[in-house]
Structures are given as C-alpha cells and as structure tokens.
Amino acid sequence: xxxxxxxRALDRQECLRLLGKVPVGRVVYTRHALPAVLPVNxxxxxxxxxxxxxxxxxxxxxxVDGVVVAFEADEFDAATRSGWSVVVTGxxxxxxxxxEHERLLRIGPDSWMPIQDNVFIRIEAxxxxxxxxxxxxxxx
Amino acid sequence: xxxxxxxRALDRQECLRLLGKVPVGRVVYTRHALPAVLPVNxxxxxxxxxxxxxxxxxxxxxxVDGVVVAFEADEFDAATRSGWSVVVTGxxxxxxxxxEHERLLRIGPDSWMPIQDNVFIRIEAxxxxxxxxxxxxxxx
Lengths: 140, 140
Prior knowledge:
The structure is a homodimer.
Chain A: E1 8-10, H1 12-19, E2 24-31, E3 34-41, E4 43-44, E5 50-55, H2 59-64, E6 68-77, E7 82-94, H3 98-107, E8 118-123, E9 127-133
Antiparallel strand pairs in A: 1-9, 2-3, 2-6, 4-5, 5-8, 6-7, 7-8, 7-9
Protein name (chains A, B): Pyridoxamine 5'-phosphate oxidase family protein
InterPro entries (chains A, B): Pyridox_Oxase-rel, Split_barrel_FMN-bd
C-alpha cells in the first residue's frame, strides 16, 4: 500500500467528508532539522482549514507557526486490507486575531488535554490529496 | 493532546510492544521540499528496525533511501480521549543484500498492494519515543 498503483484517488469533497469522520490526525513538520509527527485531535473550519487547539507555549506552536506542514488522517482495516488516507498540505499559523480567536473558542475543537493560554493553530487546506485502498484480494 | 504535559512517556520496551499491536504506521519524510507522510503496513525486525515492503520503483524508495525519516503509529479512543503514539526516528534504506532480501521475503511484512520488484525498506530504530494519553476527565 506504499505506492499509487491500485489506489483510487479521492477528490477534494471526498477527502473533506472523510476528514470529518475521524477525531484525530497527525501534524507532520520538521523539528531540529528532523522529520517530526504529532497526533492531535482536530476539527475542520468552514473554509476546510484544519483547526487544532493547543497551549500558546507548546512546542508545536513554535515549530509550525508560519511554516508549511502536512496533516494526515486515515482509517484502515487489517482484516480486509482496505481503508483511506487524506493529506492536507498548507501553511500553519497561530490564530492571533481576537475576534477570530473568540469565534474558535465557541466553534473550534476542544483539546483532549487540559491546557492554559489556549491558542488555535490553523492549517490552510492549500492542497488536499486522498486515496482509497479497497480489498484487492477478492479481485485477484 | 498536542503538548507533553499530562502525557506519560513510554520506555523503549513499551513502545516496541505497542508497535507490535498495530499493522499500519506512517512514514514521515520530505518530498519536493515539502513535508510528506504515507501510511504503510509494516513489521518489526529482530533488531527493532521497521520493515516496509514496496516496489523498487515506488516514489517512497526514491524519497527515503539513505535519509533520516520518522515512522509513527498510534491508537486513540475518542470516547475516553485516551490512547498512545510511538515515533521511530532513524535512517531508512532499501535492503540490497541478496541474503538479507531472501530472509525478509520469508519473515518480512507482506504488502497490502500487489507489487512487482519487491524491495524492503528498513528504518533503523535509532530513536524511539512514545507517550500515553489517559482519560484525564475522571481525574479533573
């Protein structure tokens, strides 16, 4: 399942529908010049950007504010060897506008961790790619 | 859940035990100077390195052979807001030694996709970090 052959590419609307089904995705970025990945719970904003709520002092904010990152979510079933994955790639930034921050406090994601100095990270959905793996054994 | 506070750090043995529970993880690397992530099914070798089976012509081999990558696996339960994640960081390389390739054909991971020109990618477990998130609401 590590190359494109045999996958069905998903269009943007399918990708967004699938992202809406799962609570957790993974922010992919660079830290200390090494590839880094952090699972986070998230939600989608009305413009399809990915919203993550964290602490203003978190390592994540320092690492990704203003930087292009990838955000990945997936679901796979080992029994049927089927599933899907979606990757959103775009610039991440901490939301600093007070009115926008207030709006996200109401409609944005909760955090699964107790945090102080709430800050929201927005990942712009500049590029959304997705693929679906169906059980090919039945067709072999 | 995006910062360390409140997580329990997992030791290397706990990380390896958890990695053995899940069939799919995610290779985190750089492609065209952008962060990239690809879900793959995998297995652990006797030296704890991560093994992935793919096609010799796959984009993944070209992108990661000889490069330090991250490999992430996790399990989370939205109902209890609990779960774990493990990240292996180390150099990836395509296995070229014929005897080693033969050994991995026997004991290495299958591929969930039909592939030609089987090649195994080994990700050295140079650094293994993991953390566990327990349901904190019951302790609040």
